[in-house]
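Sample intake sheet
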Amino acid sequence: MNDSRQSISPISDAPDLCRMDVAALTAAFRSGALSPVEAVQAALDRAEAVQPRFNAFTFIDHAGALEAARAAEARWRAGSALSAIDGVPATLKDIVHVEGWTVRYGSRVTDAAPMKQDAPAVAGLRAAGAVFIGQTTTPEFGWKAVTDSPAFGITRNPWNPDRTPGGSSGGAAVASATGAGVLHLGTDGGGSIRIPAAFTGTFGLKPTFGRVPADPPSVFGTVAHIGPMTRSPADARAMLAAMGGRSLRDWSQPWGAVPALDAQPFGWKGRKVGLWMSPPTGSLDPAVERAVLDAARRIEAAGARVEAIQLPGERLHDLFCAHWMTGAASRLSSVPPSAREAMDPGFIEAAGEGSRFSLMDYISAQQARARFGAAMDQLLADYDLLLSPATACLPFAAGREVPEGSSLSRWTEWAGFSYPINLSQQPACTLFCGLTDGLPVGLQIVGPRGQDGFVLDAAEAVDRLLGAP
């Protein structure tokens, strides 16, 4: 195991402009040393350069991005920038509505007509001045934790193109890892932000459910979250500030005040941290285990009290499938049988599994979820944070749903460190904690519901301890 920075990372061949973070870009915009047009053109060029190798984009919007960049340039020159991300290049996953863009959900059976309205998260980013350079890949309807689809093919990991970048926000993770944009919108219904962040050595945050509004509502219900994917916790904080907040278009949002995201001083001394190392399904790769335990030891050496824990609840995999697979069944029901030959067979199989749950099964699952969620809230009242592996395995062969040679049949079986936190809705992030065989390993940090800023503070502290690729 090598937990130091690799000398050659996916961004190592990117131009300097593509390696700059939000703070560096906006400082340069403010001083006039750099224009948003230059930054956006560099991101567009980088997207075109990495696309043939890794297939991260469904399309790249040169004309729209440059028009938005010129408007941002004028605002910076006039001293009237909209926000801390005005003029910063961003990407959007092919699963959120964007006015004027075709959104296909990675599918050949969806409507190709351009969207008439931005989703609330997209509208928030647009109002803050983020510049959308393109749309990133997802598996069909975001159904699995790897990224390949009948519509757009296989997306590949920039650390090793033979491996998957994870999913379902795999295109966003690849764009982030390679420097094709700074801010990347992902969605996470069972690990779809955190898994690809782990597999690509980048940063991803699944916020507390409801912090980022969603419209239209997901067929996967209240396990589905929207969040930022970036190369650092600080950039994710800036992006989340623009994406989040109350929207009257999202009835499922909590209607109370949203806790602040401002960075606060953070120290490990006196922190009580739970270390969760046993997934409810699948087995933990020894190399991943070593990397995470080493990170935990370093956090403990910094002053934290780290204790081994187990999650509350039983049969969490069955509980998650009762929510996720029934959502897939609902989505498939809207597709005419005559069109289904053009779909991912795995999605159809998953929907078939969902169709076998009865109404009483589903109601029982909702009740069990409520009990598990309450127990998780209690656990996070006893511990400041939880640490765990982000994934139980390393990136495996691209185009596969499960690791080769495993006895697993569905992606959910190796994603046991992520989907429980969708059921309980706490904020959780993934960040780089080491390399093994030239592939990144991800550490997950989970915090109390509503305390997204605290989780980001902790992630920045971990970054200072461990470094980034």
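Comment: The chain is about 35% helix and 15% strand. Confidence is low (pLDDT under 50) at residues 1-7.
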